[in-house]
Amino acid sequence: MIQLLQIFFIRPARTARLALRALRRNKLRSSLTGLGIIIGVAAVVAMVAVGNGARAQIESKVSALGQNLLTVFAGSSRSGGVNGGLGTGSNLTLADAEAMGKEVPDVIAVSPEVRSAGQAIANGRNWSTQVSGESAQYLSIRSWSLAAGTIFTERDVRTAAKVAVIGSKTATQLFGSENPIGHVVRVKSIPFVIIGLLTSKGAGMGGNNQDDILIVPYTTAMKRLTGDKYLKSVNLQISSAKRMATAQEQITNLLRQRHNLPVGRENDFSILNQKEIADTVGSISTIITLLLGSVAGISLLVGGIGIMNIMLVSVTERTREIGIRIAVGAQPQDILLQFLIEAITLSLLGGGIGVLCGVGAAQLTSVVAGFNAIVSTGSVLLAFGVSAAIGIFFGFYPARRAAAMDPIEALRYE
Fold first, then answer.
1. pLDDT digits over 316-337, tens only?
2. Where are the domains of the chain?
C-alpha cells in the first residue's frame, strides 16, 4: 500500500514541487517563454471575436431587410446609349404584382414599390427625404414595427389616401422631440397626415439611413407625387425559407410569360433573394473568421517552438543536476514528468493570461471600431486547449531527452 502511494501520489507531488521551484528560480526566462503563448492565445481569442462580431453585424443588416424576402426589380432603361440601372425600366406593372400575389402559392404578402426623393415641409422646417410608396403589408414584409400610431389600411391604398408613416430620422428633423402623430407634412405641396412613427432601424446594407423615410400608399405616390404608371420594384414575402428558391423560379416563369419573353432572351427584370444574400454573407464571414483565427494560430505555434527551445536549453544547463537526481534514486519517468510539468505549467499560465488579454483586446476593439466583438466560449476553450496541447507536444522531446541521460556522463558534465 505504501509503495502504491509512493508511485501514484508522493513521488509525482514531489516532482511537481521541484518543477515549480525550477520555474521560480528563473522567473525572467519563464516569463519570456510564456509570453509567446500569451500573445498567441490572445491573438486567437481577439481575432475570432472580431470575426464573429463582424459576421453578426452583417447578418443583422441582412435580416433587417425582412423575413423570407424576395424583391423583384424592373429592368434597366436606356436613353441615348446611357443605361439607367435596375428599377428604371417601364416593364413592371401593378398587374404583375397582383399576378405574383395570386398565382404563386408561396407568396403570402405583396408590396408594390414606388420611390422618389422629396422635400418634406412641416412645423416650420423642411427636410429632403426618401418618399416610398408601399402597400399596407409592407411593414409586415420588412419585419418593421411602429413606435407609435398605425400603418395605413387597404382602404387607404384603394382610395389613394393622403396619409403617411414617418421614419424616426425624418421625424426628428421635422418635429424634434415632439410626437409627430396627427401632424401634417407637405411633399410637393400635397398634405399628408402622419398616422404612424417607425422604430429605428439604422443603416441598411448600402449604408443608407433606413430611418430617413416617409412611407405612403403606393397608389397615392403614383397618382399624386410621381405620376408613374410603372413600379420600381415589388417586395414579396415567401411562406418559408425552404420555399424561396421554388418561389423565385415560379415568379421568373410567370413574369417571362406575362412579358412575352421568348426562349433565349434575357429577363427584363431582376430578382433579389434575401436568403441567397444571407447564405453568401455567412459563408464569406466564416472564411474570414477562419482566416483570422489561422493567422493568429501561427503565433501559438511560434510560442510552442519557443517553449521547446527554452526547455532544451534548460536541459543542457541542468545536465549535472539531472545526473545527481538519477544517482540518488530518481527514475527516468520522474525526470520526464518534471520537465513535462514545467512545459505544461508555462503553457497553461500563458494560456490563462492570454485568454484575459484576448477578451480585453476584443472589448477594446468593440469600443474603437464601434461594433460588438463577440467572444465565444468555443474560441476560448479551443485556444486554451491548444496552448495546453502545445505544452505537452513541444515539452515532450526536451523532457524525454533529459530522462534518457546517462547518469555517469551527466555527472561528468561541466
1. 766 777 777 777 777 777 777 7
2. 11-61+280-412, 113-232
